[in-house]
Design brief:
Length: 261
């Protein structure tokens, strides 16, 4: 497999050797076009690859047409990513209803952008949509706006479950950007978590909440991280995070197992 640097200086691929040959025949590549083997860092002109020597001899590499590789289509911004951010923002005024949809769209669009190899862009929008949607949902739950009857008289336990949901979501967001592998520790998730304060259960009197990530230490963490560095697919049904105070558990797929009464 190969990657191609286009005239717009963007990188396209991976593509097979047959596609490289097809692009050359259709004048989208020339002898001087820069390509590299998948998994390597060195960009070299197509003419330096022995496997394409027959093409250059056939077409006359000494007098190539004055064009470079260009994409058939410029990458499009994912509409799902844009919708995720918009719905997440609206979640603050819709009691979290649109934020739920925004969260789902953000996760789906991120996976689709990663899979489409340069044909789609907007990963930053998708990530922002996931974060904003999560914050909107957390605000609704903590404020008791959504489903108040469920959390009535269970304030500390409800807040603990909300914290675990945010932590679990942050770990899965990290996984999306790191080959579907969970982080090694909580500090690695500082870009995905809004604040380190969610790492402390309000019922844990032994721990104090850190005001910033630079202050984070064992005294500022209540929740047990049970699967650091594990592949997300391998731990979908395994306990990933646990509150030692209430006994709540979050599985690798994000589902919650509240403690039994």
């Amino acid at each position: 497999m190969y990657r191609v640097r286009g005239a717009d200086q963007n990188e396209y691929g991976p593509i097979s050797a047959d596609v490289v040959r097809d692009w050359f025949r259709n004048r989208r590549l020339v002898a001087s076009s820069l390509i590299r083997l998948e998994g390597t860092e060195e960009w070299k002109p197509l003419s330096s690859f022995p496997e394409f020597a027959d093409l250059l001899v056939t077409t006359g590499a000494s007098n190539p047409p004055p064009i470079s590789a260009v994409p058939a289509k410029p990458p499009q911004t994912s509409s799902l990513a844009t919708s995720s951010l918009v719905l997440g923002i609206l979640g603050f005024v819709t009691c979290g209803i649109t934020a739920i949809i925004g969260l789902i769209l953000g996760i789906v669009s991120t996976k689709k952008i990663n899979r489409d190899s340069g044909r789609l862009k907007g990963k930053g929008l998708a990530k922002a949509g996931i974060i904003v949607s999560s914050v909107a949902l957390a605000a609704v739950f903590v404020g008791g706006v959504l489903l108040p009857a469920i959390f009535k008289n269970r304030g500390p336990k409800a807040e603990c479950i909300t914290n675990l949901k945010q932590i679990s979501l942050a770990a899965r967001m990290y996984s999306m950007d790191h080959n579907n592998v969970f982080p090694m520790d909580y500090l690695s998730m500082s870009n995905e978590l809004v604040t380190p304060k969610v790492l402390v259960c309000s019922s844990d009197s032994r721990k104090s909440r850190a005001s910033g990530w630079s202050e984070l230490g064992p005294r500022n963490i209540s929740y047990e991280f049970l699967v650091p560095g594990k592949k997300e697919a391998d731990i979908a049904q395994s306990p990933a995070f646990r509150c030692p105070v209430h006994g709540h558990v979050v599985l690798g797929d994000g589902s919650i197992q509240p403690a039994k009464k």
